Amino acid sequence: MSLFDFFFPEEAQAMHLRSLAENNAFEARRAMRERVREHRERTRAKIMEGGNAQRIEKLEAELGEAMLVIEALLELLEEKGTIEREKLAERAKEIDGRDGMVDGALTIEELRKLKPKKGFVPKRSWPGEGEGDGEE
After folding, report:
1. Domain boundaries, the chain
2. Which of 19, 102, 106, 122 has its CA 20 to 30 A from that of 90?
3. Mean pLDDT, residues 32-57
4. How far apart are CA 91 and CA 76, in angstroms?
5. pLDDT in tens, 91-133
6. Distance between CA atoms of 34 and 28, rounded to whole angstroms?
C-alpha cells in the first residue's frame, strides 16, 4: 500500500476501478474478436458443406439422367438386334485396358482423349444440359 493510497483512499480506489474497467474492456474486446472469428469460420464451413452437398446432388442427378439415356439406347439397340450386351462388355473391357489398368472406369484424361466420330453433331440438348444458363 502506497502513501497515496493511505492518504487518498477514494482516489486510489477510483484508479484501481478504472484499471480494472480498462482490463475488462480489453478482455471483452479480445473475447468478442475471438467469437466473431469463430462465427466466421463456422459460417464459412457451413457454406462450403452446403456448396459441396449441392454440387454432389447435381452430379448425382446428372449421372442418373446419363444412366437412363444409356440404358434406353442399349435396350433399343438390343431390340433391333444391333448389339449384344456380352459383346458390349467385351468392348468396354478392351477400351478400359487402353489406359494400362482394367479397373472398370476411365480416367478424366482418357475421357478427354475420346472424341466423337467425325461428323457427329448432337441435334438437341440432353436432359440436364444448359441448366442454370437460361437454355432449355
Report:
1. 3-81, 84-116
2. 122
3. 83
4. 18
5. 888 888 887 788 888 777 777 777 665 655 555 555 555 554 4
6. 10
**CB neighbours of residue 12 within 10 Å:** 15
Q: What is the 3-state secondary structure (H, E, C) of the chain?
A: CCHHHHHCHHHHHHHHHHHHHHHHHHHHHHHHHHHHHHHHHHHHHHHHHHHHHHHHHHHHHHHHHHHHHHHHHHHHHHHCCCCCHHHHHHHHHHHHHHHCCCCCCCCHHHHHHCCCCCCCCCCCCCCCCCCCCCCC
| pLDDT average, residue stretch 8-35 | 87
**How many angstroms separate the CA atoms of 62 and 103, rounded?**
22
Closest CA to 78 of 94, 63, 89: 89
State pLDDT tens for residues 52-77: 777 888 888 888 898 999 999 999 99
Task: Give the integer Cα–Cα distance in Å for 26 and 24.
Answer: 5
C-beta separation of 135 from 125 below 8 A = yes
Q: Cell numbers at residue 18, please?
A: 478504472
CB 31 within 8 A of CB 24: no
